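User: Fold this; tokens only.

Assistant: Input:
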Amino acid sequence: MAFHRYLTSFDARKSVHRFADVLVVGAGIAGLRAALEVPSDRTVLVVTKDRLTESNSHYAQGGIAGVMSPEDRFENHVDDTLVAGDGLCDRAVVEHVVREAPAEIEKLVAWGTKFDEENGSLALTREGGHSHRRIVHALGDATGHEVMRAIIAKAQAAENITLWDDTFTVDLLTDSGACVGAAVAHEGMGRVLVWAKQTVLASGGCGMVYRETTNPPVATGDGMAAAFRAGAQLRDMEFMQFHPTVLYVAGSARYLVSEAVRGEGAYLRDVHGRRFMPDFDPRGELAPRDVVSRAIFRTMEKTQHPNVYLDLSHLDPALVKTRFPGIGKVCRGFGLDIATDRIPVRPGAHYMVGGVAVDAHGRTTLPGLWAAGEVTASGLHGANRLASNSLIEGLVFGAACGRGAAKALEGMPDRLTAPPLRNAVPPMDNPNGPLDVTDLTNSLRALMVRKMGIVRDRGRLDEATRDVSFWCKYVLAREFDDRAGWELQNLLTVARLMIDAAVRREESRGTHFRSDFPNRDDSAWGQRHLASPPLEAMR
């Protein structure tokens, strides 16, 4: 297997250099929250591979979970999170995030976020898996858009923060067993070696490893793959959360239909008009996402129909149109009225629960590297994320990473130097001409749906292992000089790690369902996490 330490060749003696106290990779909610926590007398460079607004955080619809009403309690939110996590949550982490959530939400308000209100107070909704109404939201169903508007403006106004968009992080740089920055490709300056005393990884998820996904095109697992190559530990890579309701119109881009739609009372019906969720769970449509996704999958199998339907016709039309203006607009583009028509939906890859292992402060196993948000396995989500717990995780852990990185700076010298690092990717024997990167990417994404999807078994996983390993042999051995090639290499790396973990976990838990091991097995697995093998074992 051709797993190289670095994707590209470089020589520090002949490179363009940039220095910063703290480098933040990713400009979603976790990355910018980390940057804003660093004291103003320290320099922060934030790099993001596309526009500042192009992140999973920006596209979040539902909202942010937090105990914000007298009818709710911290203990309720903790219990709901633990139940959804199916025995793998770190209770201490859950309790910490839940207790920090209200203060982080209030901070967003202070920074200019305009959440929806009712009678002068924050409007709260309920989503699947939540026992109480505790989800704050904005612009009806465009919470991420409004939150990121405010937090981007706050970061742009900070004199110590520099923002680089259109900058691809090719690899994390390491020296003497520690992270010392990153090799990036800047649209204007070309290849740059960014040297940082501390680095925060907040690059988001990897939903684009699947053909059916709610994620934007930037979600190609770059940070996970780079951390793996750099020697940081990854864990729980078998747990990809599928969102139950993705708008399914043949030939169109997939569009997330928020959890909050079911939270407000929408029903799921099969092609014959039958409401089926009560057959699978007493909570009906408000069951956790893994339960609902599998129920939809089984129903689609039974009816031999490519989708099921969301039905809002029994709800107040005025409420529906006011609460979900964005979803309503998208549906109107297909001639559908969400207040009266049944909306075709099916599950799609949504959120990576596993990732770079971090402690309660956001520290990775690689000195000098911190991580926050979807790129991590923090212990908050366990085996399945509770709806609307992702943005609050990004805020709480982003702040922790910023504080931790700033504290680590106190014991470091003021001078910044560039270590004489060099790397050369060996040329391939018999490269057989250029690769069709688009074709390979599409083939990988289709394979992951067929063999590493909602329902898995050893036979299909073994086939996936063989196919992906074969592609890795000749794709990872090449040196690319563009974003599409690097993204393909990162997607293959992440896919290989995901499949490896899914093969090893011989039970069903949370988002990981094995039809050949259909039950949760606490006697054999308990709270056992699966660490990904090191780079050396994959070569």
